[in-house]
Amino acid sequence: MPTTVTTVNVNGLRAAARKGFLPWLERTAADVICLQEVRAEPDQLPEELRDPEGWHAYHAPAATKGRAGVSVLSRVAPTAVRVGFGSAEFDAAGRYLEVDLPGDGTAGGSGPGLTVGSLYLPTGEAETERQDAKYRFMAEFRAHLDALRDRTAATGGHAVVCGDWNIAHGEADIRNWRGNRKNSGFLPEERAWVGELLGAEGGWTDVVRLLHPDVEGPYSWWSYRGKAFDNDTGWRIDYHLATPKLAAAATAATVERAATYAERWSDHAPVAVTYTL
Fold first, then answer.
1. Is 173 a catalytic site residue?
2. Catalytic residue chosen out of the listed positions 43, 104, 150, 164
């Protein structure tokens, strides 16, 4: 059975709803949706956003109101839901939510289970405490990724961690890579960290790049400033990182780029991957 997992940074869920998120949600073919930068407590969301019809919705807001926040929407009920990844510093920051889905993640599915994580990795700022915090997050999250990889391998299951990773791994992942070599999101240390995750020791696969090799992009974020969107001066920072068997089962990957600037409901575009297990 095919399972489609979609991830998108909504840049404020209530704001996105005013710009077109709900019509998108009504027509999407996704089975699981990971949201980042929700920026709201569940009780601040209207019912159609907090508990949309036809979905099982789970939210992990940040302790600091109006910041971060991640959610997972699933058409089938998860067998387990986990907020955070065991970090004393970051588990209340609204940056990670993980669900276990039965079978292949679709209604009536069977076979190994599927773990889906929604990640909002810190943005950072070069040579500041914000960048130091980003590196601390990365170090702790790497340990979680290693454990998740090993656990799914031991059980014969699958896992995908998708979301806004806030790092462009390679030159093909950012249009203006020359001008951003000293900026957070494209620093050598950050890129090396992603490279380690994708190496033999890390054991994870960048599914969109696997299905779109040797091309620039496809970008998933464009600044609201200037003509970045119109000129496709973007970054590819919204990833699906999957365990090997799940990555091998990926059959399609699409960035749902809006047709025009006016039709955008976030500065990010949804990134959808279909896995046929």
1. no
2. 164
